[in-house]
Amino acid sequence: MSEMPSKEPITFERPSSLYENLSSRFQLQDRNFQRQYAHLYCERLLTMRKNIVAGAKRKWGSDVIIRKLFELKNNEKCCIVGTFYKHMELKPNILQEISEEHNLIPQPKKDKYVSDSDTLILEDELQRICLVGNINIQKACTGMVAAVLGEEKESGKFHVEDTCFMHLNQPAPFPTLEEDRYIFFISGLGLGQEGKNLMGLQLMVDLITGQLGSQEEQEKYSKVIRVILAGDGLSYDTQDKTVLNTAKYLSRKVQATTVEGVKELDDVLTQLVSNVPVDIMPGEFDPTNGILPQQPLHRCMFPQANIYKTLNCVTNPYDAKVDGFRILGTSGQAITDIYQYTTNENRLEILEETLKTGHIAPTAPDTLACYPFLKEDPFILPEIPHVYFAGNQSKFESKLWEDEAGRKCLLLTIPRFSQTQSGVMLNLRTMEASAVVFSSEFMQ
Prior knowledge:
- The protein is α/β, with parallel strands linked by helices.
- The chain is 20% helix and 23% strand.
- The protein is globular.
C-alpha cells in the first residue's frame, strides 16, 4: 500500500516596502535651555501669519481689511491675526506647585481645568485684546494661531463674527496599491509592571510574526510591512516616584527604576524586528527626555534587538513615508493636554482640531513642556499627511477627514494596549483601519 504524499507547508513571504524618515526637524541639534519661550511664540506667529492671511482673504474676500492690534479703530469691521491665550482660573501655576511642596495649600487634582469664567485673548507681537462674540472659548486653547473677523467696540473688546485657521498645503494624492499592505499601530505596552499578564502581548507578537493563526490569518499578517510602537513601552510603575512628584518647572528626568521593563521590551522587539521593520517612538514613561520633541530611545538599551537593522528608534512626534504614504503622529501627550484645557471630550475631535489649526502641539510650551526653539517651530504642520495618529488614547477611533477642497486625511486614535489589549491594523490599499483585540476579556 503506497503512502499518501504529505502536503508541504505553505509559506508566505513578507513584501518589502519603501521607507523614508522625515523626522529630522524633531532632532535637536543643540541643547540650549537658556533661551526664553517668547522666541517660539514669535516664530510660530510669523511662520503661520502669511498662510492664515491668504486663507482669510479666500474666505472673506480679497478686500477684507487686515489690521494689526495697534491699528484697530472702533466699530471698523476688519480681520486681525494673532495667537490665542486662554485665561483660566483653574489652570495650575508655579506658585500652587511650590505651596504643594511645602504642604501649605494642597490643590486637588483635576481631570479638566475649564470653568465658565475662562476668557480668550488674542495677542500679536505688540498687544493683546479680549475676544467675545461668535467664538467657542471652551473649545479653543492657548497657542492656536488664527485670524478673526469682527470689530472692536467701545468696551475695548473685539466682537468676533467668524474665525479662520491656517490653510495647509495640498497633500500628495493617495498612492495606489494593487495588493493589500498593512501597518500595525500599537501603543502603551506598559511593560515593567509587577504581576502583569503578558499573554495578550505575546499573542499579538506571535500573530504578526506568523507563529500562530489560521492560514488566512497568517497570509494577512504576512502583509504587515511595518509596526509602529507609539510610545509608553514601559509602565508608569517603572518611574521614580520622587521624580514624578517633582515640580514641573524643575529639571525632570524620566527614568526606569528597574531594568526588568527594558528587558521585557527588548524581548518583544527582538521577536518583532526579526520578522518585520519596527519604528519605536518614546512616550511619557519611557527613558528619554520628558519634553517635546522627545528624542529617540538609545539603541544600546536593546542589546538583543539592536543587532537587527529593522529596529528603527524614532522621535516623538514621528513623520515618515511608507510606500508613498505620509504618516504623522505623536505618542499622545499633546492630545491629552488639550483634553484637560478644553470641554471637548472626544479625543478624535481634538486630533482633528490640531489638523485644522495646522499645529501638532499648540499648548506647548504653555502647559506642555517643549524645547525652547529659536528660529523655528517644528510642530507646525508642513502639509496634510495621509495618516495622522495619536497614541495612548482610551479607545480606538478613526475618521476619513475631508475638507471643502476635497483634501483627505485618515485620523486614528491608538488605544493604550495595557488597558485594552488591542492594536490598530491599517490597510494602505483601502485606507480602512480596524482594532484588533488580543484578549477575550475585552471582546464584545
